[in-house]
Amino acid sequence: MNLIPGANSASQGLRAEQVRLEVISQNIANARTTKTADGGPYQRQSVRFKAALGDAMAAQSSSSAKNEPTLEIVRDPRPAVRVYQPGHPDSDKEGFVAYPAINIHEEMADLISANRSYEANIAVMRNGRALAQQALSIGKR
Amino acid sequence: MTPITNSFSSNLAAAWARPAMGKTAGTASSVAGDTSVAAPGSRFGDMLSEMVQKTDASQKTSAATTGAMLSGQNVPLHQVMIASEEASISFQLMLEVRNKLLDGYQELMRMQV
């Protein structure tokens, strides 16, 4: 039974924002990683939400899979930042070390945005629950 | 409470269905009407027991999701909360339906013979 309106979309939105937060935290943790298993510096990752323009009315009657935003974790093709550090163990023959092109300010802004989107989805859930409870109160004497 | 609601609602639904079937007996269209009344799920008692089963299913889902999260599986916290809210709302709905049925029953019982 789908008693709480908007619960399916809100649940998928919360999951999407949670994945986004995890990717951001991984980016920040690896901001200075100069060597990965692939050999080069860490490549910044971002989350791509595929367009989920499902009809809201159709989603109500059918399963929730139709309206699910598809997540894809893609690698940012930004070139690495080269810093002249001849003493570094990962420096190349010219003395440059390739650091990941991760801007902490950009990651912080994404973090705040993910936070607010999560709160917005929670607000939708709360309102949906309030609607359901008010509908139940019609019958109360 | 659940077994009482089931048998009570089925009895009440049967009591309501009997006079209707008596009125429509004997006409050609009533044969089609009888088969449509007897179709599964169209009787009020069947609908009520289906609702009770769905409420029970949502309660079980909520308990299973909470247990999975507590035992360390990769269940997101919001999914646990949403499942518990759905179970709570569906349980309240079942209570309201039960109250309405009881009110109707008491109204019938208050009738002077």
Helix content of chain A: 40-55%
What coarse outline of chain B follows from CA principal-axis ratios? elongated
Order of helices and strands of chain B: HHHH
Question: Which stretches of chain B are poorly predicted, pLDDT < 50 over at least 5 residues?
Answer: 1-5, 19-37
Descriptive notes:
The complex is a heterodimer of chains A (141) and B (113). By secondary structure, chain A is of the alpha+beta class. Chain A has one domain. Chain A contains 3 helices and 4 strands. In chain A, the strands form 2 sheets. Chain A has a two-stranded antiparallel ribbon. In chain A, helix 1 (7-29) runs antiparallel to helix 3 (104-136). The longest helix of chain A is centred in the last third of the chain and has 33 residues, at 104-136. Chain A is rod-shaped and about 80 Å long. Chain B has 113 residues and is mainly alpha-helical. Chain B has a domain at 47-113. Chain B is built from 4 helices and no strands. Chain B has helices spanning 2-24, 28-37, 44-70, 77-109. In chain B, helix 3 packs antiparallel against helix 4. The longest helix of chain B is centred in the last third of the chain and has 33 residues, at 77-109. In chain B, 12% of the residues are buried. Mean pLDDT of chain B is 75; it is low at 1-5 and 19-37. The chains are: A alpha+beta (141), B mainly alpha (113). The A-B interface holds A 1, 3-4, 7, 10-11, 14-15, 18, 122, 125, 129, 132-133, 136, 139-140 and B 51, 54-55, 58, 76, 78-79, 82, 85-86, 89-90, 92-93, 96, 99-100.
